[in-house]
Structures are given as structure tokens and as C-alpha cells.
Amino acid sequence: MSQHSAMPSVTDTEIDLALFGALGDLALRKLFPALYHLDREGLLPEGTRLVGLARQDLDGEAFRQQVAGALQQRVKSDEQDKTSLKRFLARLDYLKLDFSSVEGYEAVRAWREGSPRPMVVYLSVPARIYGDICRNLQASGSLDDSTRVVVEKPIGYDLASSQEINDVIGEVFPESRIYRIDHYLGKETVQNLIALRFANPLFGTQWNQNHISHVEITVAEQVGIEGRWGYFDQAGQLRDMVQNHLLQLLCLIAMDPPSNLDADAIRDEKVKVLKALKPFVGEALGRDVVRGQYTAGTSQGAAVPGYLEEEGANTDSHTETFVAMKTEVANWRWAGVPFYLRTGKRMPEKLSQIVIHFRQQPHYIFDPDQRSLAANKLIIRLQPEEGIALQVLTKDSGLDKGMRLRPGPLHLDFNNAFPKSRIPDAYERLLLEVMKGQQYLFVRRDEVEHAWRWCDQLIAGWEARDMPPRRYPAGSWGPVASIAMITQDGRSWYEDY
Ligand SMILES: NC(=O)C1=CN([C@@H]2O[C@H](COP(=O)(O)OP(=O)(O)OC[C@H]3O[C@@H](n4cnc5c(N)ncnc54)[C@H](OP(=O)(O)O)[C@@H]3O)[C@@H](O)[C@H]2O)C=CC1
Ligand SMILES: O=C1O[C@H](COP(=O)(O)O)[C@@H](O)[C@H](O)[C@H]1O
């Protein structure tokens, strides 16, 4: 973000966007709604052109109708207005293409012919065909030195496969034009972490093992695997959520202050954290990590099947749908501070939050029964209601309360504090950053690879010890062992939801 000094004007953000996989789940559920919102807010400059690519035999009109149907379903009704919808749909072209074969790419080149704008190629397709698309675009002469490529997670299945994928993308695009998405980096509160930590001296001076006792990161999902058995069973919650989203959150909490807001200054600091993450060896594998898999239970009051009864399931699967772990960043700032991470599908509610637990005062003078209360917590809520709350202790009010302590929040609720501004979806922000050519919210190759290295050793440990997942009923907070893991340290998961 050194671009601060020379922030591009809106017209600098004009692009030609080629969206591969335009009729897929991600494109229809997230990307087109995000692009629609950008257009509605005046952030898609006049000349911006969008082409959807897929292999269905459609003409432009039929494609626009499919996108219009998706927008009707996905965009809140009070945010759908006829003029914006009409303008947005009018920007869309469609190209039928089999991505694996170079034949047909001539149409992409022709679509670009004479355009003064940079092209953004968005690969909303499985990672195994990233290489084919990059090479075919190059072979057909569709690329130039300004083309950017956006790739989705997961980049591979382990370190080796991610290196292969990164190698083929890297044959065609330099790192400075590769945008690896981790959509958690586009969430409003995640970005606020950077502001919170580095703009507030109050926190800057306290952000280390002298003042922080432990950190919790919870990313609980209410949904199950949503018909994605084929993908999910190969991955599991560690690869699907921890390798990327949770480790990115951990990095933003744990990293040292970057020397400026340049993309590489931030990413250098994140890499240092990933390299300092303690591996799980020996006893720690059984003690500090819990894998779980949901069985039948309830969700929002309705009965739901277990993981092994989901459509397309293989009943022998040991894939985990839940992981909890205690890890540590082994460096001067964090030595001895546990980072407790948990994430799972079919939890009681959708909740993503980070809780920073500050240490207690060195000498305690209040009611001994209240001793466990006597520490500040900083609660950073990513979803559903974005906000930041600092839990402080005050005297309980009333004549009969004496010097009883009462924990209460100093609360910043983004929706109430900034009521006029709609909180944009992560993909809106990320697409806008790609349009501006700014990379600080995207993941660099070495980050992906260090994250895989750490996950690979954990998976190898599970496999070597044959550690099947523990069962938990859908609609619960995971296996009981995940609660025992933290209570054995005299702590508990923060549950004041
Ligand atoms: N869906 C999600 O919520 C998330 C997805 N992602 C990532 O985003 C990417 C897209 O995911 P998703 O939308 O779910 O996947 P889908 O399978 O729903 O969409 C992929 C699209 O690509 C098309 N496609 C695949 N191969 C070819 C080919 N050779 N030629 C032409 N078209 C082809 C498919 O067409 P067809 O239907 O004809 O097969 C399909 O429309 C993946 O990398 C995924 O890991 C990341 C985070 C969340
Ligand atoms: O990347 C993924 O993220 C979603 C959760 O995203 P959220 O923004 O709804 O929290 C997860 O369901 C999916 O399995 C995973 O691939």
C-alpha cells in the first residue's frame, strides 16, 4: 500500500475482467453479487468490461439471464434496483470455451483486441486446471505485460502439489501480477486488525507475552459440507480452513509491525510468524490437537444428517470436519503464549471471533471469589456482527455491592457506529483491490508454502499415529476433548456470544 501517496483515481481502475468458471458456485453465489455491488456504488468505471467463460452452450442473453437469477437470489431485495441491475447486466459478455484445450482461446484474444485496459483473469475453477488456462492464454496471445491473474484457494492439497500449481502459474505470470485469494483477508474486521494494532499505542505497547496470557481464534460454521463431498472429503477442515483462513488470522494477530503498509512489508512479517509456528511432535499430537467429525444432530431446530450420511458419502471416511489445537509462535514476542484455534462445520451458530486475553494484574486486591474475572479481554468479532469490544472491569453499581467487580464491554459495533455505511462483502473489497493493482490483501507464494509445510507435518503425524476423528453431534461445539484441551490449562473457550 505504498500506493497511498499515489492512490489510483477511479479511471485507473478500469479493467477487462475475464471470469473463468462463470457458471460455477463461487461465481454465481459470490463474485457476480460482489461485482454488482461495486457497480451500484459507482466503483466499476464506465469502460470496465466483463466476460464470463464456461463450457455451457449459451448465448449472451441466456448467460445474462442466469446471472440475473443469481443476483435476485443473492442480493438483498432493498439493494436490487432496476437501473443498477440493467446497467450491470449490460456489461456482461459470454464466451463458451473448454478451458483445457487451446482451441477456442482465439476468442479471448479477439475479445481483448485493441483494448487499452489491463486484463484481469479470474480463475474460479478447480486448481488442477489453473495451469492449462494460463498456458492456453499465453499460447493464444491473449496476454500482455499488464495482465493480472486471480486464483482461488486451496492452492493444492499439500506442499508438493501447491508448489506444482504455483510453478505453472509462475511460468506465465510474475509474482507481482498473481493475486491469491483468501477471502478472510477481505473481511472488514480483519482489515481493522491492522488499524487496531498499529494505529493505537494502547495496544501496540501491550501486544506481547508480558501482557497477553493467551489468544483464542474460533471460526465456527453452522453449515455442513453443502453438497461438496467430492471436494471436502479429500480436504478436511485442516486443509479447507486452517491452512488458509485461520493461519492468516493468526499471522495478523502475531506479526511484528511492518515498516510500512507495502504488500511485501506486511507479507514478510506474516512469513516470519508462519516460520516460527511450533510443529506438533510426540506427545503434543495427542495432547494439543483434537480432530472431530459430526454425526447426525440438529441445526436451527431441524434434524440434519451426520457427515457419513451426507449425499455421496463414503461411510469409511476419517476426514475431519472439526479441528481444535493449541499452538505457539516460538519467538521473543510470543514465547509461552498459547494460541488456541478451533474451527468446525455444523456448530450451533456461525461465529468467527478472536479473543485476546490480557494477563491479570500482578497483585490482586478485590474479592478473592472474583479473581478469575480480573483480566481484560479484547474481542474481535468477524461475523456475524462485525465489531470490536474491550472487556474492562468496573465497580458494580448499587449501594449494597461494596467493591464488587463487574466486567462490561467498551464496544464498537460497526453497524451501529457507522450506520450509514453498508459493510461490504469480502469479495467486493478484494475485487476492488485487484482492479487497483494492490496486493496487500493477497497471499504471497511463500506464505502459502510455509502454511502447507506446517499443516503437512501435522497431517503426517495423524497418519503415522492413525488418529481417527472423534465424533460430535451436529449442533454442538465439537468433541468434548476440545473443551478438555483448554480446561486442562485452567482456561475455557470464551462463550459470551
Ligand atoms: N464455492 C465456494 O464457496 C468456494 C470455492 N473456492 C474455490 O473457487 C474455485 C471455484 O469453485 P466452485 O465455484 O465451487 O466450483 P464449481 O465446480 O462450482 O465451478 C467451476 C466451474 O468451472 C467449470 N469448469 C471446470 N473445468 C472446466 C473446463 N475444462 N472447461 C470449461 N469449464 C470448466 C465448471 O463447469 P461445469 O459445471 O461444466 O463442470 C464450473 O462451472 C475452486 O478453486 C474452489 O476451490 C474457494 C472458496 C469457496
Ligand atoms: O473457504 C471456505 O470458506 C467457507 C467459510 O467462509 P465464510 O466466509 O462463510 O466464513 C467454508 O464454508 C468453505 O468450506 C471453505 O472452502
Automatic annotation (TrEMBL):
Organism: Franzmannia pantelleriensis
GO molecular-function term, one example from the UniProt record: NADP binding
Binding site for NADP(+): R55, D98, F99, K153
Pathway field: Carbohydrate degradation; pentose phosphate pathway; D-ribulose 5-phosphate from D-glucose 6-phosphate (oxidative stage): step 1/3
Active site per the UniProt annotation: H245 (proton acceptor)
Listed NCBIfam families: zwf
Enzyme class: oxidoreductase
Protein name (record): Glucose-6-phosphate 1-dehydrogenase
PROSITE patterns listed in its UniProt record: G6P_DEHYDROGENASE
GO biological process, one term: glucose metabolic process
Enzymatic reactions: D-glucose 6-phosphate + NADP(+) = 6-phospho-D-glucono-1,5-lactone + NADPH + H(+)
Family: Belongs to the glucose-6-phosphate dehydrogenase family.
Residues the record lists as binding substrate: H183, K187, E221, D240, K345, K350
Keyword Oxidoreductase in annotation: yes
UniProt EC number: 1.1.1.49
Keywords: Carbohydrate metabolism, Glucose metabolism, NADP, Oxidoreductase
